[in-house]
Structure formats: structure tokens, C-alpha cells
Design goal:
By secondary structure, this protein is an all-alpha fold. The protein has 12 helices and no strands. The protein has a single domain, classed as ABC transporter involved in vitamin B12 uptake, BtuC (Orthogonal Bundle).
């Protein structure tokens, strides 16, 4: 393969992995706070359809992304009310949210299927984008890709070194201890769930406003579920999560590369590659289960009520 082909593959891998990275970031923060939200797929779809409709009707991509994030937050508040306030089973509630979001988004978006919108444009950084191999992949992307570049190290530092990060981790490890220190555990978990919803909405908005700037039913193609697996196999570490998202992006475009190179491979087999490759690689990355940093938060998925 020549240099230009490799450069374009890396560029496409980062772009394809970005929506998965965004939704997985939000889920990781939720789980670090002790909340397991399986409704990411539904929240992504609602963000995708409502963000697309907003951008199409107002002519503003920024408005579309704002609406997409708000749609995700509203869906997350529904989940929070049921799972946190009413203490319903988080697994069942998340699954119901995913199904509900998928059905509602299909109903709302039916009149808008196939309609195009002027998508998000790339922001090319002079000189840096000319670096061989990685320049185009890292410095000729759109604003949402750059946002993900900032969020990963910023949130990693926050979780490890800041007081808010310590509070979030305590909510997921020992909510009783956090409550005993005078902190509002339910508020912390609600905020984490809302952040996860906003990121899921932005991820959905990225699909309908940047990656493929149009709305189609079920366009998330299981990315919400893959994000849940990535968080687990990445050991709840943001750096590993970023790597896993881009590996998924790379695997997702390999069928185009193989076809371009003339390989005769079954389309069905190629369609499996992103999911199989991501899971296999991240299983290898997560083998060090003796490391406490790679283990699940102790209170994840468990309802919590203050003991008076």
C-alpha cells in the first residue's frame, strides 16, 4: 500500500470511530458513578433524528448538535427517574429505553428519511495537516473530532486528579461512604447520567450531521451496544477506550480497502469484522484483571438509597 492510501485509511478510521468514542465516553462516566445505562442506542437514535430535524429546519448545524445533546439529556432523565429515583432494575430499564428510543426515532423521522443536509465541514490546521501519515488523520478533521481529542485527556485527568473526579469514583465504589461524608450521591449519579445522555445525543448527531449527513432509521447500527462492550473491555480507562474506538473505526472500513485492492471476500464476513476485531483486541488489552484499575466499579448497577 502506498503512503496516500495509508493516510486516507487512518483518516477514515478516526472519523468512523468518533461517534463510538463520544457515546462510550459518556457511558464510562456513568459507570464510574455506579450507574449502568444500557439505553445508549436509543439515546443516540433520538439525538440523531432530532438533531437532524433541527439542522434541516433552521439551517444551522450548531443548532442541530445542541438539540441532539438535549435530546440525549432528556432521554437520560427518563432513565434516571426510573432507575435512580424509583430504583427500578437498571438493566431492564436501559433495555426498555433502547427499544423505546429506536421506535420513537423511527416514527418521528419517517417524513425526513433520505433528505440531505449540509454536513459539518472539516477544519484543516495548516502545516500540521501536512505531517506524513498522521497529519490528515489528526489535523484535517471536523470540530467534533477535535472535541473528542480534548475530552479524553481532560476527563482522564479529572477522574484521576481532581476532587469532582474523586467524588464520581466514590459514587461508583462506595456510595455509602460518600453519603457519610456529606455528599449527595443521587445528585452525582444524576449528573453523570445526564452527561452520558448528552454524549450519546452528540454521537447520534454526529452520525446524521457529519458522518452521513442525512437521517435513516437505525443508522446507529449497534454502536450503542458496542460502546457498552468497549467500556468493559477497556477496563474503564479512557486511553484504552479511545484506542478501542479507533480500532472499531479501522475495522469498519477495511471492507472498502479490501474491495479496492481486489480481494474477493464475502460481504457478510466483512460486515462481521468491526465487531469481532474490536472485541478480540480489547479482550487482549484487558487481560490484566489483577490490576484494580481495570476492574468494574464495586457499586455499578446497584440501586442505592440513603440509610438514615
Amino acid at each position: 500500500m502506498d503512503m496516500d492510501l495509508i493516510t486516507n485509511i487512518l483518516f477514515a478510521a478516526v472519523r468512523t470511530g468518533t461517534p463510538l468514542l463520544l457515546v462510550a465516553i459518556g457511558e464510562l462516566i456513568c459507570e464510574r458513578a455506579g450507574v449502568l445505562n444500557l439505553g445508549q442506542e436509543g439515546m443516540m437514535l433520538m439525538g440523531a433524528v432530532l438533531g437532524f430535524i433541527a439542522a434541516l429546519t433552521t439551517g444551522s448545524i450548531v443548532t442541530g448538535f445542541v438539540v441532539a445533546a438535549l435530546a440525549g439529556v432528556l432521554m437520560s432523565l427518563l432513565f434516571g427517574f426510573l432507575a435512580l429515583t424509583l430504583s427500578t432494575n437498571q438493566y431492564a430499564t436501559g433495555l426498555a429505553l433502547a427499544i423505546f428510543g429506536g421506535g420513537l426515532s423511527a416514527f418521528i423521522g419517517q417524513p425526513f428519511v433520505g433528505k440531505p443536509v449540509d454536513g459539518l465541514h472539516a477544519i484543516v490546521i495548516p502545516y500540521l495537516s501536512d505531517i506524513p501519515l498522521i497529519g490528515k488523520a489528526l489535523f484535517a478533521q471536523d470540530g467534533m473530532v477535535y472535541l473528542s481529542f480534548i475530552l479524553v485527556p481532560a476527563l482522564a485527568w479529572m477522574l484521576k486528579n481532581s476532587r469532582p473526579g474523586l467524588i464520581i469514583r466514590a459514587a461508583g465504589e462506595s456510595p455509602d461512604s460518600l453519603h457519610a461524608l456529606g455528599h449527595r450521591v443521587m445528585m452525582v449519579r444524576y449528573l453523570a447520567v445526564m452527561f452520558g445522555g448528552a454524549m450519546a445525543g452528540l454521537a447520534g448527531g454526529y452520525l446524521s450531521l457529519a458522518y452521513t449527513p442525512m437521517w435513516n432509521e437505525g443508522m446507529t447500527a449497534g454502536r450503542g451496544w458496542i460502546a457498552l462492550a468497549l467500556v468493559v473491555f477497556a477496563g474503564w480507562q479512557l486511553g484504552r477506550l479511545m484506542l478501542g474506538a479507533y480500532l472499531f473505526g479501522l475495522a469498519s472500513i477495511l471492507h472498502l480497502v479490501f474491495q479496492g485492492l481486489g480481494f474477493d471476500i464475502s460481504p457478510s464476513l466483512l460486515a462481521m469484522m468491526p465487531y469481532v476485531a474490536t472485541i478480540l483486541v480489547l479482550v487482549v488489552l484487558s487481560r490484566s484483571r489483577d490490576n484494580p484499575a481495570l476492574q468494574a466499579p464495586a457499586a455499578i448497577g446497584k440501586p442505592w438509597r440513603p440509610v438514615h
